[in-house]
Amino acid sequence: MSNLTDKDKKKSIAIAVLTVSDTRDKDTDKSGGTIIRMAEEAGHIIADYRISKDNPAEISGNVEEWIGNSAVEAIIITGGSGIGYRDVTIETVKPYFTKTIDGFGELFRFLSYTEDVGSKALLSRATAGSIDEKVLFALPGSSKAVKLAMEKLILPELHHIVHELTKHRK
């Protein structure tokens, strides 16, 4: 049972979205578009949306800007989370984590395994963590994977996570 009030549950969360890709732009970015569409349909606000190359400095620059922006409450990154040479998102964002949310990656891989990709799910390095009072989710670049994570994990728990990270202020 949740300790959230109806007011907390209805509050829009301000989300920054980052797509990490060397090939996508805003016209071809299905995964970023999926995050934006699903978040807005759930009543949340997209505070910012950007596309970054698979480049640690570029990814870090965006994350650091959003960490410093008090209006951003959550960061969702799609792409760059695989095991390929150019996949640097996870190594880039993990050092920022105040705490890891290990259950996110575990549940995401379980759901991916059972609902979609089978044993290929072991290649996923999807992760989440808190950065002080913000939450960051790092997802695969696949729009199917993004839809699964948003529908089954992120949107159902986003209010609760933000509430837990900020409740000491109340």
From TrEMBL:
Pathway: Cofactor biosynthesis; molybdopterin biosynthesis
Pfam families, alphabetized: MoCF_biosynth (PF00994)
Keywords from the UniProt entry: Molybdenum cofactor biosynthesis
The keyword Cell membrane is assigned to this record: no
Domain MoaB/Mog: 16-161
Top-level lineage group: Bacteria
Main function: May be involved in the biosynthesis of molybdopterin.
Protein family per UniProt: Belongs to the MoaB/Mog family.
Name recorded for this polypeptide: Molybdenum cofactor biosynthesis protein B
UniProt source species: Sporosarcina koreensis
